[in-house]
Amino acid sequence: MYPVSNAFLQSVQENTREYKWTGKLVTKSGIVYEIEPEDIVKGSGYITRSCCGSNEIELGSVYASEMKVTLFLDADRHTLEDAVMQFFYSLKLPDGKWETIPMGVFEISEANRHIKTIELTGYDYMLRFDKTASVDASSGTPFEFLSYACEKCNVQLAHTREEVEAMPNGMELLGIYPDGNVETYRDLLFYLAQTLGRVCQINREGRLELIPYGDVPVVVMGAEHRFSSSYSDFVTRYTAVYSTNEVEAKSEYYCLDPDDGLTMNLGINSLLQYGLQNTRENIITNILNSVVAIDYVPFDLDTIGNPALDPMDVIRFTGGHADSDSISCITSVTYKINGRQTLKGVGKNPLLSSAKSKTDKNIIGLLNQVETSKFVICSYENPAEIEVGEEPVRIINVTFASIESTSALFIGNINCEVTSEEETMREEYTVSHEVPTVESIISRAVALAKHTDEEEVLNVADSEVLGGIPEVVYETVEDVVSVPVTEKKNPIVTFIYKIDDTWIEEYSPKQKVIDGNNIFALLYPMGGLGANSAKTLEVYMKAEGGLLRIAPANCKAAVAGSGIASGYAEWDGKIVVEENVGIYAMEQAAMSVRKMDGIVNIKTMDETAYGFMDSLGLIRLEGTMSLFRLSDTAVISDTE
User: How far is it, in rounded angstroms, from Cα 581 to Cα 142?
Assistant: First the structure.
């Protein structure tokens, strides 16, 4: 429900009200048309918004809102293509003031000109996500994927990082793979919203919003506000979910105890196909906990209208044949401009559909097996920005499996921006100049000294022709001058490959780069891949003498070959921790190590802390060397 004042809620429930609809139409060229109430043809306008289909409550829906209106407007219909229409509802309060609320932002998709009027049809920004997704293999958190999709489709996100992470599964690391059937960003939104236990809506300000199912009524609507209404004699509620695991070719059933309600079919969620089975169970269990909040009575009614109501709002009906002890959820609402309002809440009957809801599921594409002779590309793309410095940073992570003994080829392309460090160098230059020799100066001075008369000395000194007076001889002298010069470094970028737990030490390509934009091409052939084995190829990158930034979707890589498939192998439960200790020099016959402490801090998504400590007491060694104490402490956070 759009936030309004108490005076608005009071006035909208009165028997009479004074209100008006206005709008603003802005063309792509910047022309603004202010729409007044008299510009709207009576009975011609409506706005329809929904979050579910016509029969069943859905999870992860991405429905677009529709607007249609006929205006007395003198405008060229050709200039209205992709124009933006905003509608506003204003209600007069008891104190005489007007309170205005937005009714949505719509992009004009069709404009039909009549003799005196023009008919406009528009949809909200949800259609902008009907854009081919440029990411077919990547990993990231839900907020990173949502931000990436909104940025690519030019739609603002209505949530902060903290709000998304507070949602169910909001901090899980999700992955997209080439066989995930994510064709458009709208598909990606569907899978994300389903994982978060939400539905997607474009709110009245034109921002993408994810809304959960709730159980707290926002308004109570009495019989005096309803023109006609119908209510079901059952309550739609869910106690189980059904999800298809495409990788293992099986369907999984998660339920509460007792399981006496409907089962929601999640189908094949492309974000939940790979990873640990335990993680998948936790994610789907969180989705189930979101679904069990659905406990609604389906309804259909016409009302005098409250324009502040939105889809997903929970309402309690009283009076007439309504059950005041139950609640309902709006799944579809139609605002008729200057007219009535139609509300609808859909839902299935648990008694009629429970028998087949657990067996009749959408498992299309369940057996998507990989042919051994088929050429497969397992690709990767970074969803977030990567910053690379002197320490190695993992930039690529591709997991694949070989169905048969085969070979594969890794290729990659990285587009990055380099900020080079500055260094001051001293450059030496040779400078030459002429100076008189000491011998010639002395010889001339001695010759001049023989002339005692001052006037004669001056005359002799100025004369160049007197005999016996030697000339001053000049010689060329070269000096080396050192000058400080500040220059940009040419950073050296190093790539380090790692397959499973093995570093490829014999192959670490390096390249010198310049300040500014650079592009790298990577290539690494992999042979001798055994049959039925899972591999993880990681590429690390470091830069000496500068800082590199890789923008989202600017690091693309792929492992290509026949007889391979993308996927994760199950975790074997092993955690490997390495610690490097420097060399201790033994300069004397006696050496003692008083104390050695080590602390390992590991943090994963969910913080459930486990403690570990081992202590090694006094050890006597031969000679005079004693090890007094050796202790290790480990604090490990895991998802369990």
Answer: 39
